[in-house]
Amino acid sequence: MINLWNTFLYGPLFNALAFLVSIVPGGDVGIAVILLTIIVKTVLFPLSQRSIESQIKMNLLAPELKKIKDSGTSKEEQAKQTFELYKHHKTNPFSGCLLVLIQIPIIFALYYVFLKELNFQSTLLYPFIHAPEDINMLFLGILDISQKGLIILAVLAGLSQYFQARLMPKPVVQNKTDSSFQENLTNSMQTQMKYVFPFVIAFIAYSVSGAVALYWITSNIFAIGQQIYANKKKKLALEKVGP
């Protein structure tokens, strides 16, 4: 299992970081961290974009799903109508979860690259990748990202997480006075994602090295841009859902 992890996930990302550090002026590891995060997120963009669009479409279909649920027909008939609705709008309710699951090992491996102490003399370095001659942990000549407790990066990580959560599609509730347990739970989770999770991320970013915090900030900013792009396409999805 460790060999598979090193061969297909950690190893390639570790070597990519080594290469980027070797070509970045002054060997600025912070800039290399940002570049590698952007590259990986760009490669994963089609998968994550489909996941976001699937989530948006499911929210847009919520009124129709509620009508089926409140129709009073049998469970079998509701299941049939729900299946037909998904088929008509070419939507798979599980596709978003599947796409997210595919991304998790890659994102975790990227996080692990920045979490571990950088040692480019490792045996994991490919023969055609040369160990960087200059390794500068002083990001932009200001922040030592090898250190923990960088308050400015912790604050930026928390803020970027907040704005990312703020842009996420909100669940559609047809009748707020008669909302179901599932709707209440969804709303509660949305509130926690928006107001509680950013503080958790800020605390984590404060507790780990600046390199990890910088990775998290870059990842969040990329996700914010991606969500804005997805929201612009929401109008088209609304037209497709309409009668």
How would you describe the overall organization of this protein?
The protein is mostly helical and 243 residues long. It has one domain (2-241). It is built from eleven helices and two strands. It has helices at residues 2-23, 29-43, 45-60, 62-69, 75-88, 95-115, 151-167, 181-195, 197-207, 210-232, 234-241, and strands spanning 138-139, 143-144. Strands 1-2 form a two-stranded antiparallel sheet. α3 (45-60) crosses α11 (234-241). The longest helix has 23 residues, at 210-232.
Summarize the structure.
The chain has one domain (2-241). It has helices at 2-23, 29-43, 45-60, 62-69, 75-88, 95-115, 151-167, 181-195, 197-207, 210-232, 234-241; strands at residues 138-139, 143-144. With 243 residues, the chain is mostly helical.
Explain the layout of strands and helices.
Blueprint: H1 2-23, H2 29-43, H3 45-60, H4 62-69, H5 75-88, H6 95-115, E1 138-139, E2 143-144, H7 151-167, H8 181-195, H9 197-207, H10 210-232, H11 234-241
Antiparallel strand pairs: 1-2
Helix pairs in contact: 1-2, 1-6, 2-10, 3-6, 3-10, 3-11, 4-5, 7-8, 7-9, 7-10
Helical percent range? 55-70%
Q: What is the typical, i.e. mean, pLDDT?
A: 81
Order of helices and strands: HHHHHHEEHHHHH
Number of domains: 1
Q: What gap, in angstroms, lies between the N and C termini? A: 51 Å
